[in-house]
Amino acid sequence: MVLIDFHNGSHALFNPRTCSLDQVWRGSVQWRGKVFDFSQETSQSLPLVGPEDFLVNRLAAVPLLESLSLTADEPTARVRGIDLTGISDAWLWFEERGRAPIRFELLDSKSAAPVAHFESATHVTSDDAWQWNLKRLPRWNGSLDALLTCGTLPKSIRSLRVLLEASAWSADGTPCAVRWRGYDLEANHSVRLRFEITLPDGRRCPITQFLQGSDGGGCESWFAPPLPTHLQYDGETPSRHSFQWSTP
Fold first, then answer.
1. Residue 248: how many other CB atoms lie within 10 Å
2. Percent of the chain with pLDDT over 90
3. Among 42, 75, 90, 64, residue whose Cα is nearest residue 158
4. What is the pTM of this model?
5. pLDDT tens digits, residue range 69-92?
6. Predicted confidence (pLDDT) per residue in 27-82, tens digit
7. C-alpha–C-alpha distance, residues 138 and 132, integer Å
8. CB burial class (10 A; 0-12, 13-18, 19+) of residue 243?
9. Domain ranges in the chain?
């Protein structure tokens, strides 16, 4: 990820895998991880108040279940309908308690045929502390069910969510492959993001996206050179856009 601080109270997060803006928000950053606090957490956006501080948020997780306890009476659970249609990448995000791993079996929702399986990464030293997990799902053009089991009961799990990364660029409805080419920082805290899009006919289209902070917060975004007329970004024609909050 490319984190951009506009030095006006707002930030943007650009995703090199999809060459798209994943977040634009006002506030700060909560720095986490091995470099900052020796945790297994990841840094994340820290809005001033809440969801209203996001003008773009492609990273919002889809909740699947709030909490679950596997017991001798109910030793398995099934989470239905994890829809990955049109998604380039997806991750399961959850917390668990207990040092016996929980097993996830991923099944085709239509046929119940097995697709993949994995076990969770439990806490190293504690039976009571909650351990955070993030697991990448297989690419799948359809819907999956997850069958959850554990050899040692009871077993607790909470905050099961799925993070979805959709393809951003398309031409005539066909998703386009993208290739990240790097970025340049300017003295005024603006940034040039450079990437390349491969059109369905095989032609390569180099693109530069400019992001510049605005007075009073927010930012401006525009593209160069002129883009092919049939190229779309999130289903719309790419154009200059101003990200501004309607209220202070």
1. 6
2. 78
3. 64
4. 0.79
5. 999 999 999 999 999 987 889 999
6. 999 988 888 888 777 788 999 999 999 999 998 889 999 999 999 999 999 999 99
7. 20
8. buried
9. 2-58+168-244, 60-166
Whether the per-residue pLDDT at 230 is higher than 80: the answer is: yes
Contacts of 45 (CB under 8 A, 6+ apart): 11, 13, 23, 25, 27, 29, 30, 54
Residue type, position 44, single letter: Q
Q: Which fold has domain 60-166?
A: Jelly Rolls (2.60.120)
* For residues 122-132, average pLDDT: 89
Q: Of the candidates 187, 134, 141, 139, which has an alpha carbon nearest to the alpha carbon of residue 162?
A: 134
